[in-house]
Amino acid sequence: MVTMASPNLASKCSTAMAKPSLPLKLFLWVFIVVILPTSSFQTEEDDDTANKTWVLTPKVIESDVTHILNSLLDGYDNKLRPDIGGFFTFLDGTSQLESISSATQGPESRREAGRLAATVLTIFKHSRSLSAVKPTVIHTDMFVNSIGPVNAINMEYTIDIFFAQTWYDRRLKFNSSMKVLRLNSNMVGKIWIPDTFFRNSKKADAHWITTPNRMLRIWNDGRILYTLRLTIDAECQLKLNNFPMDEHSCPLEFSSYGYPREEIVYKWKRSSVEVGDIRSWRLYQFSFVGLRNTSEIVRTVSGDYVVLTVFFDLSRRMGYFTIQTYIPCTLIVVLSWVSFWINKDAVPARTSLGITTVLTMTTLSTIARKSLPKVSYVTAMDLFVSVCFIFVFAALIEYGTLHYFVSNRKQSAKKDRKKRNPQKPTVDIRPRSATAIQMNNATHMQERDEEYGYECLDGKDCTSFFCCFEDCRSGAWRHGRLHIHVAKIDSYARIFFPTAFGLFNLVYWVSYLYL
């Protein structure tokens, strides 16, 4: 019985294993329903997490930047300025072409859409009737690295600046996680750059060591920043009427070379001009006062152009010219007055002193003019040097006049005495000096000034403006004439020359420094 029951039990067990019971089926169904959606939801959450991570921390590789640059330059024409087609210029970028092409499926359809978009762009570019001209706005600013030196002879100055220009080019918009492309000078020649030039520059040099000092930035919204370093020799028309107490405003003008204001408009930024450390500037004879910037419209035959100008206000320092010119000229004038205290009979001493001072003043005036251009008007220094020369020359003429009248009077007196008393001995009643000189057993007394003992003679002496003695002041022929003692001319000069020179200096310095 037992052996017969075993096969039946085995067959029942196998049948039970082959056909699962209803609870087991229900359990398996619930397990599948619960587990599988959970895993799929987890997969979606993982994908979302991955996407969020990609957006917040993008990983940009070199191939992405290369692809952006290639797509920007594909079909880009750097000969045309931005916004030249007005309303339709937004279609001119390669990013827009790519968006049109990607709207269709399949490579053939994309290429066809690209060709169609390019054809439409060509029609829009060459049809002025479909669009209005929109000017390109260039925002400019500069950083002044240094100014100087100022060359007064050539009327120019040297300035070292970092010049920056900012504008929008819709053709260079791109869609990427990168906000800005930082590029070097190799990219400059591949895009449109404003044709800015400096109107009053005589010479301009860009810095090329070790590489071209140029920088380019392109933002994803099409904004472009272009900066470069320049050293410019700019013209500055110096007005030297008040030299060396002059002040100047040296301009730096720039504008577009070929685009009038209908095409390009230049504007200053808010912080348009900044300066570096002025202690390193090579101004030498000048001091920096300040700067100001302006904007104006210049009308020419080829059109109206927007011109931006920055003025650098400079004031000349007088230290160099005070030491080199003003003080030496003043000392030479004072030195010429020494002859007024030298005896009028010392002809060699007074003559050599006068000639030496005149020649010295001539040399000083020549040296003073070497640092100036050959202008046709009189400067403040020319006036001072000329007046000093006149004072020195007048001191020499004063002694020449004095010596002429004194020597002429002596000769006339001797001739008249010989004519009146040719044989009669005469007694000299003129006062003598207390000192006697014994020479060859003869006694000769030194005479005092000739104003004692000479009579007033008729003729040349008494008809002149100068009268010798008090008793010559009477007579009808002397009415209305100036009577001056010849011997007292030096005394008058000792007072007149310093007083006149002092008054001149007072008027000179007050006029040029305060008026």
TrEMBL record:
Localization of this protein: Postsynaptic cell membrane
Question: Domain Neurotransmitter-gated ion-channel transmembrane spans what residues?
Answer: 325-419, 423-509
GO MF term set: chloride channel activity; extracellular ligand-gated monoatomic ion channel activity; GABA-A receptor activity
Q: What are the record keywords, sorted?
A: Cell membrane, Chloride, Chloride channel, Disulfide bond, Glycoprotein, Ion channel, Ion transport, Membrane, Postsynaptic cell membrane, Signal, Synapse, Transmembrane, Transmembrane helix, Transport
Cysteines engaged in disulfide bonds, as pairs: 236-250
Protein family: Belongs to the ligand-gated ion channel (TC 1.A.9) family.
Q: What is this protein called?
A: GABA(A) receptor subunit gamma-2
The scientific name of the source species is Pogonophryne albipinna
The root-end lineage is:
Eukaryota, Metazoa, Chordata, Craniata, Vertebrata
